[in-house]
Amino acid sequence: TAKRKGSGVVVYDPAIDKTSQESLSLLSELRRALERDEFMLYLQPKLDLASGEVIGAEALVRWVHPEKGFIGPDNFIPFAETTGFVRMLTTCMLEKVARLCSELQTRGTYLKFSVNLSARDLMDQELPATFGAILNRYMLSPTAICLEITESAIMDDPARAQNTLDRLSRMGFALGIDDFGTGYSSLAYLKSLPVDELKIDKSFVMKMEQDQDDAKIVRSTVDLGHNLGLRVVAEGVESEAVWFLLRQMGCDQGQGYFMGKPMPVDRFLEWLQSWRA
Ligand code: C2E
Ligand code: CA
Ligand code: CA
Ligand code: CA
């Protein structure tokens, strides 16, 4: 399932059948990358749309490969999910986020960080304990962390997902539904899961200025979320016009290239200073 493009970059191609040497070697490359700390934490700012205040950031992984250079998550996360390796990656990302978050708190900066979970993470019975241990190590409250889950990850095995999410929620983590609107037609899970946040998929947000249907979908989703008592976040905010539209609709938070692209930690901290200035 893994192949190499002309550039030598390892890409995941679900169309190609595998059991091959190649997917084995990609898995061993991923393991080595973890040992060598080649997975880098990138942060994309999340803002309050009414006040422009920075709420925090979403953690997004980048693989900085010694020879192949910079590899984006879409090129290895799907493969990491099929092999279960993604659980190691999730733990690694939470660890980096927790360390940074607690370090910032000692300097008086209180930010919320979002970490992406995959379907595989939700199947892992040990996950809540693993996460608890990491937070203890950094003496960090789980309320500083929002865990983002896609609808399709929940639908893989709804009963087990519910069990894991209930436990994480009881520990104090905030939970968000990612890519909302792209997954399943059933909304039933919204009433049984301990969800705090709906994140409207960027495919609806990016073109909402030109496309009336997209705008209506966004508006309805904001209302749906608010009627259920949830916080609503829009991703893919690429212009000031879209920010204003979202604010008019009462959308709570936004994230997108207009405010800031995903960036390494030091650049994020610089961005934070200049945004606040
Ligand atoms: P996602 O969780 O939906 O993350 C949002 C993606 O949208 C990011 O892509 C981000 O760079 C991009 N984005 C943000 N604002 C804009 C915008 O204004 N315009 C456009 N066109 N795009 C925008 P990225 O970083 O390439 O990540 C892709 C996906 O890979 C993520 O989608 C997530 O599903 C997965 N991913 C990334 N990091 C992790 C991770 O640490 N763990 C797991 N399990 N998945 C991850
Ligand atoms: Ca996300
Ligand atoms: Ca998303
Ligand atoms: Ca996505």
Question: How would you describe this structure to a colleague?
Answer:
It contains twelve helices and twelve strands. It is an alpha/beta fold. An eight-stranded mixed barrel has the order 3-4-6-7-8-9-10-11, surrounded by four helices. A two-stranded antiparallel sheet has the order 1-2. Helix 3 runs parallel beside helix 5. The longest helix is centred in the middle third of the chain and has 21 residues. The N and C termini lie far apart (48 Å). The structure holds ligand C2E and calcium ion (CA) (3 copies). One calcium ion binds next to strand 8.
Summarize the structure.
This protein is α/β, with parallel strands linked by helices and 277 residues long. It has helices at residues 21-35, 77-83, 86-106, 119-123, 127-137, 151-155, 158-171, 189-192, 202-205, 212-227, 240-248, 265-276, and strands at 2-4, 10-12, 39-48, 54-65, 69-71, 112-116, 145-150, 174-180, 197-200, 231-235, 253-255, 263-264. It contains twelve helices and twelve strands.
